[in-house]
């Protein structure tokens, strides 16, 4: 696509330099990835400002640079380099619009489902993908654990990538025969316009509890960020929301989409009842339009009955046969690090990504429901550094209140002092049933070796992650591998 044609996709305030009639080779926001005839979009981030790297992009052969309205980069630099300087109001929106144009608007040709909420996004995405594929529809996925183009797995760095990477992924999905796509939509991505311009056919709201307040500052801001997804849905789309969450009505209050609800609430369109679960899976009933369907899944816990029902509702709204939906739910494998059971003996470890107070509470309660009050329940957890500090004491309270023994340890301390994070957690403890072992490997080892023979050990916080980040350095670390080592 020629630069002159591509620029028709954005609202330009000013142009300086030379707009050459050259084919654009790519759209980049990272100057390190710029190659000859790329368009470089300078984005002001939270750690650095892309405007500082404009000269790098020029030196690497960019054919145009898109900058913000208030930039201080002289026009003479662009004139001398014989390239275009494009000034816009918002470079994040410009990146999304340029990417949509360059990659031929791929989501207009896919049936795209977005999933947002504090908990359950990853699992719900995997279930929906499996349902679609069991119905014979090749499906792509973008999410926290990995991205998939059909069956091809691509490692993920962000829950929701930047808009240029997203549109590239979606085009690859189309070129590989995908008809549908499902993606996790983070609150960050909605505020930062990463999904701007995407054409969603459906969206799911799982739930909302306090999280990411380091970024959003207030719960109201966090809630409003989630609402953006439903505000942008077109009238021919569907919004599936958790009726048991008090925020669901507000989330869809301005949505043009068809609204479908799910939950235990009997006025829901998809009513969940008779939930039963153990370490082998979950059985429950979904009632819709007066008809009841018995559903079973390998996934464990009441929260997974909700995730499955959200997936059921989306697939049903897309016209997939209900028996195929039930089969898709039943055959969905364990999602890595989502209430993943480890151990062949009586003693079990459960690795779970629960890293908020709400998800930790649900995980502990689900485990207690399974093992009863006679067996020992041990919880190993920490909190991530450089993230929402308000949840730390609340998680300390939840863990000590509901567990028999708690081992407070490190998660990903990042650039924070691990002991300070642990001290923040300790501010909320309500019982003297905890110990501190800062080294996560030693904490898991202690929990497994020193617990009772029939204990259940919840290892919470990191889930699928295979690294631990300390002082900005990521080293290999897997809760699953360590649990297997000491349960073997």
Please explain how this structure is put together:
- This protein is α/β, with parallel strands linked by helices.
- The protein folds into three domains: 3-102, 3-Layer(aba) Sandwich (Udp-n-acetylmuramoylalanyl-d-glutamate--2,6- Diaminopimelate Ligase, Chain: A, domain 1); 106-330, Mur-like, catalytic domain (UDP-N-acetylmuramoyl-L-alanine:D-glutamate ligase, 3-Layer(aba) Sandwich), CATH 3.40.1190; 340-487, Protein-Tyrosine Phosphatase, Chain A (Alpha-Beta Complex).
- Helices cover 33% and strands 24% of the residues.
- It is built from 17 helices and 24 strands.
- The strands form five sheets. A nine-stranded mixed sheet has the order 7-10-6-11-12-13-14-15-16, sandwiched between helices. A six-stranded mixed sheet has the order 17-18-22-19-20-21, sandwiched between helices.
- Helix 5 (121-134) crosses helix 11 (302-317), helix 11 runs antiparallel to helix 12 (322-330) and helix 13 packs parallel to helix 14 (391-402).
- It is globular and about 75 Å long.
- The mean pLDDT is 95.
